[in-house]
What does this fold into?
Amino acid sequence: MVTMHTEDDDHGYDRPSKSQVKREMHALLDLGKQLIEQPTERLKQLPLSEKLYEAIREAQRISNSREGLRRQIHYVGKLMRDADADTIRQQLDVWENGSREQTRAMHRLENLRDLLLRNDDALTDLLKQYPQADVQQLRTFIREGRKEAQANAALQPGQEPKRKHYRALFQALKQLVDQPTNETPHDTDHA
It folds into this structure.
């Protein structure tokens, strides 16, 4: 006796449930809403069809009609069915989380710079963590940054503060933190 297997042997179902389809549609609608909030420059970097791109741009332009905007959002959600949603989600995640991490890193460097300008012991601690650092360069930037801060404190209203060494110290710290720890200062000169 030969048994025949058909595509719907799993209790007669060969498609996702209605609930699953509904969840996927809501996810695409939410993704469409995220896209509507993105600036044009970012939208151009995503794999969007011309029709979807124009629908998103139209939704961004609608401001005077809540109902019109709601309908346009749903239209974007409908067009999202044919889009590469996974790639779009990944890129949005990179933009959102990548920029947060970059912002945190920048704040850490700013705090370190400010600490170095306030506290002499901070340089000793930094050199323990980064023995490859150019000590003379850092000392020069710190000394000149402190002079700038004193001069800036005495400025009259409307005068521009000087920040050349303040910024140079930040850039030196950024390079120090970004370089691999096994490099010596001489290795970076030849790179």
